[in-house]
Amino acid sequence: MLYTELGELPKYFDRYIKLVPEDMHLMDALHKYGPEYYRADLDILNKIGDRVYAADKWSIKDILQHLIDAERVFAYRAMCFSRAEKIQLPSFDEDGYAKEARASHRLLEDLFEEMHLLRQSTIALFSSFDTHHLQSIGQTVSASISVPAIGFTLAGHFIHHKNVLVERYYPIIHKI
To answer: Could you read off the pLDDT of 107-129 as tens digits, one per residue?
Structure first.
């Protein structure tokens, strides 16, 4: 499935979904835009360390932990909606999660390992979905969203944060 086949894209999540190339199938996007998309930059990320590009911004570790937390939340939503969950699922406070995660106490390598294992689990979940599951739609506090739109959101979310890293964090290296 291509994201152009989703019909109307969910508000707010469209900004992530549209980052995925239009001709890329869902499973290909989940494979390509995940932890391995970042792993090649591990040396750069280690050099940046806990530096941030501006006050009150997340560190590299906070961003990676956020990607992990968001993936868990969105994979859960995809599973719930594929099982015809009728209740409205809650949103999550990404800043509150980031604060409580205490990512600064973790090693980048450990975050990457967790991201890798989690993405493998997400890929297994989406691989288990048949046509019926991929037509499922559920409701969160902020939007209705389909199961495949969740998958494209996950891929686009990785692209979005990689773009932030390249544009705002990588220039920090030149200041070191």
So the answer is: 999 999 999 999 999 999 999 99
